[in-house]
Amino acid sequence: xxxxxxxxxxxxxxxxxxxxxxxxxxxxxxxxxxxxxxxxxxxxxxxxxxxxxxxxxxx
Length: 59
Hints:
Strand content: under 5%
Order of helices and strands: HHH
Distance between the termini: 42 Å
Shape: elongated
């Protein structure tokens, strides 16, 4: 049971971290000062993930 709780806590922490990174990506895209490649390099997300977030931002 302890392992299950730890796994849930770790998963929640990962999801929270991803949301923070997404927020940063949205801000970088909105600023228009960075190329998609630069954003991918800085955030360590794939270029495909950045493109997906860019599409979501435009919606």
